[in-house]
Amino acid sequence: MWAGERGGPGSPHGFQLLLRCKTATLPSQSLGQALSQQWRDGTGRGERVKKGILERLNSGEVVIGDGSFVFTLEKRGYVKAGLWTPEAAVEYPEAVRQLHMEYLRAGSNVMQTFTFFAGKDNLESKWKDVNEAACDLAREVAEKGDALVAGGISQTSLYQSQKNKLEIKEIFQQQLEVFTRKNVDFLIAEYFEYCEEAVWAVEVLKESGKPVAATMCIGPEGDMHNLTPGECAVRLVKAGASIVGVNCRFGPEISLATVKLMKEGLEASGLKAYLMVQTLGFHTPDCGKGGFVDLPQYPFGLEPRLATRWDIQKYAREAYNLGVRYIGGCCGFEPYHIRAIAEELAPERGFLPDASEKHGSWGSGLSMHTKPWIRARAQKEYWKNLLPASGRPYFPSLSKPDA
Ligand SMILES: [Zn+2]
Q1: 319 in a domain, yes or no?
Q2: Which residues are annotated binding-site positions for Zn(2+)?
Q3: What is the tens place of the pLDDT at every residue in 228-242?
Q4: Quick check: is 402 in a domain?
Q5: pLDDT tens-digit profile of 157-196?
Q6: Could you tell me the distance, in angstroms and rounded to a whole number, from the CA of residue 148 to the centre of ligand 1?
Q7: Strand order in the sheet with 212-216
Q8: Is position 392 within any domain?
């Protein structure tokens, strides 16, 4: 009954299901909810085995990632900016669980463990407890729906200062040992600004035998050693990554431009891999090579740059047209942005997420409004062409990076 089994992109059967969801007078139960239910109570034909990440991608499915964790939990009061470490997995598990739940409901197919910067280098003696708790939370929520668990590692704090390959690989190995014991479904090496360190991460993760995705936090100018995005992608695939792309640091347009360069690099080398993008939820056309961290508003004044749900529908469509089949978000990317991906690509996927029960596609819910000028906004053309105002008449729309 999964999307891939119902036929390829735009299959008539898939579209029928979508229409059925959308035209129901009462949103009694979406397909996603029905499937969630099936996972919960084990109804149907006994135990079902979920399709793995590569099976899904091989069959042409669009995999929707998740969104912001450290940034969002900082705003909610559970993460401290600066270190951006995920102790909340142990200290406030209900906060982490709730955010996972919101992404699942919005349409995410992947629950990434909340293990960003969770190596021994950043967390000292707490690293093990945090990684274990994060795996348990991700698994608990993933089991409530059609989601997989991905164990995530990120760049270390050692690479720039010491560049000690053995020591850095040991940090990755320690995290991998927890992921293996907790039996995550696949692995993601993310947020690497140096290709060399990302390659070490992939080499370690490959030892598990599980599929490995690798995303770098770079823009079109390439990594901090001036390797082009295309060359980075080639090296990551040669190291064993099945899925490559970018996450964080840049907004939708720049992230997609970088993935396009990766795609071209792979094609020129005759290599094959699936493409992945997890953009910021912020617009960053004025970024330098280092991305949004160098903007003067980082990290506490970025709100005026926030992408609308309509911006993210455009992003999802452009990513799809580029051939990217693993689409998600990073810092600033909220559950309603994930829902926007799921809604934009509903014709291809064949169903809407549970959270769409509370959201009429393209503002259609406003057709019930009592004020006629608001009712007039219940249409795609209105929201597609809207120019959002910042409400700040004396403020610049762009700024100059500090570095
Ligand atoms: Zn991020």
Answers
A1: yes
A2: 248, 330-331
A3: 999 999 999 999 999
A4: no
A5: 999 998 899 999 999 999 999 999 999 999 999 999 999 9
A6: 20
A7: 63-64, 326-329, 274-279, 243-247, 212-216, 186-192, 148-154, 110-112
A8: no
Ligand 1 centre to CA of 251 (Å) is 10
pLDDT averaged over 10-residue windows placed end to end, the chain, 403 residues: 34 35 38 47 55 98 98 98 96 98 98 96 96 98 98 96 94 98 98 98 98 98 98 98 98 98 98 98 98 98 98 98 98 98 98 96 94 97 95 95 95
Please give the distance of CA 206 from its chain centroid, rounded to a whole number.
21
Q: How far is CA 275 from CA 184, 216, 226, 245, 267, in A?
A: 21, 12, 21, 6, 12
Structural domain count, the chain: 1
Per the domain annotation, does 7 fall within a domain? no
Quote the domain boundaries for residue 104: 12-385
CATH number of the domain that 45 lies in?
Answer: 3.20.20.330
Distance in Å, CA 303 to ligand 1 centroid: 15
CA of 287 to the centre of ligand 1 (A): 15
Determine the distance separating the centroid of ligand 1 and the alpha carbon of 290, expressed in angstroms.
Answer: 13
Cα–Cα dist 307/252, whole Å: 9
Q: How far is the CA of 24 from the centre of ligand 1 (A)?
A: 37
Q: What are the binding residues?
A: 248, 330-331
114 C-alpha to ligand 1 centroid (Å): 12
Ligand 1 mean position, distance from CA 21 (Å): 33
pTM listed for this prediction: 0.90
